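Final report, closing paragraph on structural work. Over the funding period we assembled a curated collection of sequence-structure pairs, and we close with a single example.
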Amino acid sequence: MAIYKVLSFDQSTQKTGWGLFEGGTLVEYGLIDLHKEKDSKQRWSMMVSNISQLILEKKPRVVVVEDTVLQRSPTTLKMLAQLQGAIIGCAQSLSLSCEVIYPTEWRKVLGIET
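Its predicted structure, as stored:
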């Protein structure tokens, strides 16, 4: 079986973490930190742009995004859902497979107790 790249995101509108896996091994990771941008619409647009650029740069075969979960603020939930949709749309426009995973699932895989 061929070794392939998976680019995963723990996305947020302020700080989005990402990890690049090759053959199941974490080879690179980082943080897109836009918390200093106070205009939420501008920050969202910048986050989408940064994530899209990362997908283009890293050339994964699969993109994994964290599923949205209930938030205290309906506005926050809406923005996170829109961000998730933008990532999925970017992946699909590049003919990449995209998986959505619940936070509890990826934490369990990594052995993180919550």
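The mean pLDDT is 89. Residues 12 and 80 are 6 Å apart (CA to CA). We thank the funder for supporting this effort.
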